[in-house]
């Protein structure tokens, strides 16, 4: 060849042809340029010289032609069966076929609590919906129906059952396999002692369903780390809370002036708490204290952390958790937008939006369409003005004492707001704590529900304008997704940290005035009905002009966060991309191990 490069990578190709392969003669081009007018003219005499060298009969030209013929033969052999390119293409096809035949297999193992299982099932749905990923969810017999009801129709999701340790070993009543069904600390302790009995059955299951490419298990299952390590499987931890709480939990607490107040150090922003609001693991049941010790010694061996959050919600704390604290972590939420009721919630929040795939969207909505009592609630909400209803729920495990329940009833009644109030099945007989004549006085504007309620659907209804919440992370995110301001009433766990995020940083909530972290209702100071009424009215935009303006600003920020949450889960959004990165990293790891 006589080489005459112009632009692009052509000058590199010239070096290969002339210097490395030695089958070419350069004509003398010296300038990379797209436009002919920008290139120096190569004179005819120079062209003649290069052509004569390439076409000449001398020794150098003959050697160049010999090498060119040898390369031509090598090129032919490369494409024949057994040749280098033939073999490489075959390997590529086989690897592609292998990946197509065996998708990435991720096993999810949620803790047996009503608040822990739904987000992990929804996460399994989210993984499986990406394509090229198969998921297996592990459950015990009594919890299987809840998990099965949340599986995404048509997705590559399997459910495997592990037997819960027998009542003879646990001392628990038969059929008790969910910690939310327990109300006394002794039973909770027995439950936690029984949980590690799942270790050997889980290990056998992983061997049975191999190959497994990753295990995502609850924070309360640190023993899944050595089980996964034995089989060479990466384990990721799911905490069930957000980045701010993870950072705050690890931050040192220093007394600030008064001994009743502490400031959390080494965080991106100033965080001040009452000492009485801080978690006190010393008061936890013995099995929990032992568990926290095991977590502290094993957690660093996890492959990483998967968090139900999104970048726009807590960017400073995502960076802090990753960079300052040195954790590998991926945010994949808010998962509530993808779980059961997620499609219907989207339709209610964005009724005029055109879906990209309307038929597929309609099928998904029909699969999750509310029935029975849910339909009644929607009809009841439809009769109320937009933004007028306050929803009250303390989660599946949040308990209030009878006196506090009575004061909450007084506060809701005095607020004058329509309300839906969900109380636990295990709460005392409401005849004992409901004020006399309460139901009759509020029957036109209030509903008191016992047991489960479709929280995501209720919060997403246009009539709902506020949410009294215990600040469990699932509830916080569902409030964010719905764009609803919150009245914060934390009880225990990381809930007081979540309150600080909602009230101080996001500024989409008002505190009701809870001051003490306590597992037992009788250990908490009672919040009076008058105080509850005042906070509810402020949050709902009642009262003086200044309070109304503050509530309007809070609602505006809540709506903006709801839009940001929706964008995070869409293609190209922060959580969509982070999940794609995690899946790709697990896929790359599998191929590297295979090689």
Instruction: Provide the spatial order of strands within the biggest beta sheet.
Output: 5-4-3-6-7-11-12
Fold-level CATH name of the largest domain: Rossmann fold
Q: What gap, in angstroms, lies between the N and C termini?
A: 40 Å
- Looking at the chains present, what oligomeric state does this protein adopt? single chain
The CATH homologous superfamily of the largest domain corresponds to Glycogen Phosphorylase B
Percent helix among the residues?
40-55%
Provide the CATH top-level class of the largest domain. Alpha Beta
Q: Tell me the major beta sheet.
A: 7 strands, parallel
Beta percentage is 5-15%
Describe the structure.
The two termini are 40 Å apart. Helix content is 47%, strand content 13%. It folds into 3 domains: 2-94, Glycogen Phosphorylase B (Rossmann fold, 3-Layer(aba) Sandwich); 100-335 and 574-594, Rossmann fold (3-Layer(aba) Sandwich); 370-569, Glycogen Phosphorylase B (Rossmann fold, 3-Layer(aba) Sandwich). By secondary structure, the protein is α/β, with parallel strands linked by helices.
What is the topology?
Layout: E1 2-3, H1 10-20, E2 25-26, H2 44-55, H3 59-79, H4 84-101, E3 104-109, H5 117-129, E4 133-139, H6 144-150, E5 157-161, H7 167-170, H8 185-194, H9 199-208, E6 214-218, H10 224-230, E7 235-238, H11 243-250, E8 253-256, E9 258-264, E10 271-274, H12 286-298, E11 304-307, H13 315-324, E12 329-331, H14 342-349, H15 358-367, H16 373-382, E13 389-393, H17 402-415, E14 419-423, H18 430-433, H19 438-442, E15 446-450, H20 455-459, E16 464-469, H21 473-482, E17 486-488, H22 495-505, E18 509-511, H23 529-539, H24 545-569, H25 574-594
Helix pairs in contact: 8-12, 11-13, 11-22, 17-23
């Amino acid at each position: 060849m006589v080489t005459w490069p112009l632009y692009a990578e052509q000058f590199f190709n010239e070096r290969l042809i002339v210097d490395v392969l030695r089958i070419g003669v350069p004509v003398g081009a010296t300038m990379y340029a797209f436009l002919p007018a920008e290139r120096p003219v190569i004179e005819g005499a120079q062209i003649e010289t290069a052509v004569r060298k390439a076409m000449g009969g001398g020794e150098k030209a003959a050697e160049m032609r010999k090498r060119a013929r040898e390369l031509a033969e090598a090129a032919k052999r490369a494409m024949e069966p057994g040749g280098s390119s033939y073999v490489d293409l075959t390997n590529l096809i086989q690897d592609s076929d292998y990946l197509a035949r065996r998708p990435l297999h991720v096993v999810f193992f949620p803790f047996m609590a009503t608040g822990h299982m739904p987000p992990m099932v929804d996460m399994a749905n989210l993984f499986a919906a990406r394509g090229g990923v198969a998921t297996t969810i592990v459950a015990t017999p009594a919890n299987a129906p809840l998990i099965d009801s949340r599986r995404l129709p048509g997705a590559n999701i399997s459910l495997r059952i592990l037997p819960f340790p027998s009542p003879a070993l646990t001392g628990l009543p038969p059929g008790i396999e969910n910690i939310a069904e327990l109300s006394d600390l002794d039973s909770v302790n027995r439950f936690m002692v029984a949980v590690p009995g799942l270790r050997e059955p889980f290990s056998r299951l992983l061997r049975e369903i191999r190959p497994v490419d990753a295990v995502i298990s609850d924070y309360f299952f640190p023993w899944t780390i050595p089980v996964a390590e034995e089989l060479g499987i990466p384990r990721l931890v799911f905490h069930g809370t957000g980045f701010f709480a993870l950072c705050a939990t690890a931050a040192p607490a220093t007394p600030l002036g008064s001994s009743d107040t502490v400031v959390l150090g080494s965080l991106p922003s100033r965080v001040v708490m009452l000492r009485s609001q801080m978690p006190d693991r010393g008061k936890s049941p013995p099995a929990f204290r032992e568990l926290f010790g095991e977590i502290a010694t094993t957690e660093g061996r996890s492959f990483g952390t998967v968090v139900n959050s999104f970048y726009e919600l807590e960017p400073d704390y995502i960076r802090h958790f990753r960079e300052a604290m040195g954790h590998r972590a991926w945010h994949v939420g808010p998962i509530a937008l993808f779980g059961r009721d997620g499609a219907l919630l989207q339709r209610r929040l964005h009724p005029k939006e055109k879906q990209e795939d309307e038929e597929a969207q309609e099928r998904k909505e029909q699969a999750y369409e509310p029935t029975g009592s849910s339909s009644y609630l929607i009809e009841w909400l439809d009769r109320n003005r937009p933004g007028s209803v306050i929803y009250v729920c303390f989660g599946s495990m949040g308990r209030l004492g009878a006196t506090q329940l009575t004061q909450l009833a007084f506060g809701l009644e005095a607020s004058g707001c329509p309300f839906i109030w969900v109380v636990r099945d295990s709460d005392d007989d409401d005849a004992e704590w409901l004020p006399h004549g309460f139901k009759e006085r509020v029957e036109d504007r209030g509903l008191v529900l016992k047991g489960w309620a479709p929280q995501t659907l209720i919060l997403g209804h246009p009539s709902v304008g506020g949410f009294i919440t215990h600040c469990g992370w699932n509830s916080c995110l569902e409030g964010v997704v719905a764009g609803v301001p919150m009245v914060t009433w934390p009880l225990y766990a990381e809930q007081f940290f979540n309150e600080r995020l909602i009230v101080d940083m996001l500024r989409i909530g008002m505190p009701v005035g809870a001051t003490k972290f306590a597992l037992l209702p009788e250990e908490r100071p009672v919040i009076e009905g008058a105080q509850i009424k005042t906070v509810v009215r402020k949050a709902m935009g009642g009262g003086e002009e200044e309070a109304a303006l503050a509530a309007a600003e809070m609602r505006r920020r809540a709506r903006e966060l709801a839009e940001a949450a929706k964008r995070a889960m869409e293609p190209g959004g922060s959580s969509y991309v982070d999940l794609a990165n995690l899946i790709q990293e697990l896929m790359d790891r599998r191929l590297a191990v295979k090689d």
